[in-house]
Amino acid sequence: MTSQINPNLINGAYPVAGQDNSTKGMRDNFTNIKTNFTFAAAEISALQSSVVTSGAASVNDLDGALVFGAQVRNITAPVVSWGTQSGTVQINWSAGQYQTITASGSLVLAFVADSYPPAGVYGQVKIKVTINNIAHTLTLPATVTVNNQGIQGLNTSTNVITFAATGVYEFLFETSDNGATFIVSEVNKRIQPFNNSSEDLADAGAANLAVTTSYFSTAAAETATLAAGVEGQIKTFAMYADSGDMIITVTNAGWKTSGTGTITFDTIGDACTLQYINAKWFCIGNNGCVFA
Predict the structure, then answer these.
(1) Which H or E element spans position 34?
(2) How much is the average pLDDT of 118-146?
(3) Using CB atoms within 10 A as the burial measure, which of 35, 40, 88, 99 is most buried?
């Protein structure tokens, strides 16, 4: 802003030494000095309320002001720790862009509505989730619908993530439309390669969509189920010991016109590989299994 202080209003040559001087000139000088002090006080107060300050105790709220043409370094962000939690966790976007949770049970994420960036402004928050029990799931908000096809273990119909292994997972959530939709990315996916994961499938169990391979041995006739997958997902089944048939009921079976189908394993070494293509499971490899 342009300062209103005008030093030219002060007559520096008045009063004149060695002669009588009009008091009006003195009064004019004093008035102009007071006016400039008034301007100075107002401008200094305005600066104090808006200037960016430094120091450990400083808190600067720029209130959405645009900063550009700057070269910056050593930029940090506060860490918001939710500690050990289960159930619904209300993520306050404005609290900080890196937030951490340790799961003591299944988690449901919710974003506090009034904390979003305004429409037309991009914002992001990264959430670190520590999973110590693969029975614990993570449910994402319903507004997380963009880019979610690539999230390992995510059922896009329910937004529930099932984890293949214990460990630390990081998810990045981004929005530019005031929270109407979110883009989600699994930041550290390479820590737990999807193709390296497997499970021992129990009788009457549901095949874990978060792992690539389900293997099993039967003590008698057994059954299991496979739910709908995500586009491009690959799932392998293998029988390594046989004391009875294993029949797996498959949702959206590609070898059926519609609905479910079954795969029967009746011999050690029976195995097959399925891929989810155009909303159906198709067999792309088979050794001894019977499809019906």
Answers:
(1) helix 23-50
(2) 91
(3) 99
| Least confident piece of the model among 3-7, 106-110, 220-224 | 3-7
For residues 244 and 278, the answer to whether their CB atoms sit within 8 Å is no
Structure tokens at 60: 């600067």
Buried b (16+ CB within 10 A) or exposed e, 196-231: ebebebeeebebbbbbbbbebebeeebebebbbbbe
Q: Give the pLDDT confidence score for residue 162 in this predicted structure.
A: 86
Pairing relationship of beta strands 261-265 and 290-291 according to DSSP bridges: antiparallel
What Å distances lie between residue 106 and 47, 85, 130, 215, CA to CA?
49, 9, 11, 25
Rounded Cα distance, 98 and 168, in Å: 14
Of the candidates 193, 170, 172, the one whose C-alpha atom is nearest the C-alpha of residue 183 is: 172
Instruction: Tell me how far CA of residue 171 lies from CA of 45, 74, 233, in angstroms.
Output: 43, 23, 20
Torsion sign over Cα 49, 73, 76, 161: positive
**Cα-based torsion angle of the residue sequence 130, 133, 136, 140 in order, rounded to the nearest 10 degrees:** 20
Give the pTM: 0.61
Q: Is 45 exposed, middle or buried (0-12, 13-18, 19+ CB in 10 A)?
A: exposed
